[in-house]
Amino acid sequence: MSETLLPPVWVNTNPLLQQMIDDLVTQNRVAVDTESNSLHAFREQVCLAQISSTNADYLIDPLVLKDLSALAPIFSNPKIEKIFHAAEYDLVCLRRDFGFSFANLFDTMHAARVLGYPAVGLDRLLNDKFKIQTDKRHQKANWAARPLTKEQIHYARLDTHYLFDLRDVLEKELREKGRLEFAQEDFTRACLFDEQKHKINGESWERFSSRKDLSLRDLTILAQLCKWRDIEAEKLNRPVYKVIMDDTLVMVSKNSPQHKVDLSALGLSEKQIHLWGDGVLSAVRQGVSAPLVTRKQVETKNDAFLRRLEKLKVWRKKVGLEMGVESDVILPKPYLSAIAENPPNDINELAFIMKETPSRVDKYGVQILKLLGVKNAN
Description:
Blueprint: E1 9-11, H1 14-24, E2 29-36, E3 46-52, E4 57-60, H2 72-76, E5 81-84, H3 87-98, E6 105-107, H4 108-115, H5 122-130, H6 150-161, H7 163-177, H8 180-191, H9 216-236, H10 246-255, H11 260-265, H12 270-289, H13 303-323, H14 327-330, H15 333-341, H16 347-353, H17 358-371
Parallel strand pairs: 1-4, 2-5, 5-6
Antiparallel strand pairs: 2-3, 3-4
Helix pairs in contact: 4-7, 9-10, 9-12, 13-15
């Protein structure tokens, strides 16, 4: 594929935003991507949104344009298909930052997974299908920095420019393999609102609560350290790991240092000790004297549930190997857990559990019921 690309349209004013909207509302499909700053900020945000139409590639600057509500009708319009690559993360970010809802989606990465591609990155697919090469170095760039480099702008527009052609190629392959319904049902399910759990300062210690090498006192100290680190990271607007890494905090919590000289042996650099040594030691002292935290209790499942879950996992892995796809393409995780938790007694009950994916019920329903020991599964 060889073509001369026109410069993308940099959308950073309301008139330019409206000009873009006037184009998008006439389209039956648009390609969408976002760039965020998760590796460079305490609270990530969408720093760039790319939308391509058949007429132009648009790069929208949400750091300047605070109100992007004019895009909401585009995203929610079922008559306009939104093409993403690896939609899940973009949808989370767009819902979180702008409150958008979505209808009519095509995810080229998921389509490639349903087809059984061993490598589903956009760079690999564009190279395989169209001999187009992209520079992955910019994936970890600080997209909040301005101005963006020419290389970043080129990289960003390529993330959407060729999605139309890639989508058409993959849809054709899905039809040929009889897997289009699987993919379409998954696209529809991705549009359903899924409430995200937001991080609460000071509660990040709970991620460690199941570790058996940490006593309750260790966890209590770690809770204070995490609270201190969250406050410091927010103040500096950087990810928490760029203050002190998790493994280092765990070491500190297990050894309860009393003096700055002890911190070096636990993994803190001289710079970290200079900047934050007093704060770390203060958090340790608070953790030593604070009331013990309570471990978050992990819900224990009964043996019958675990047996059903294992049977379903073994079955879907076997079928996945036969089809040349990952096992979750056969039976997505939400259905795996729901069926093991509340085993259906007949095909109607199974169809209710899997109501968003009737094609999988048609193809695998009898197999699943027989696996669960349902009599007269046919």
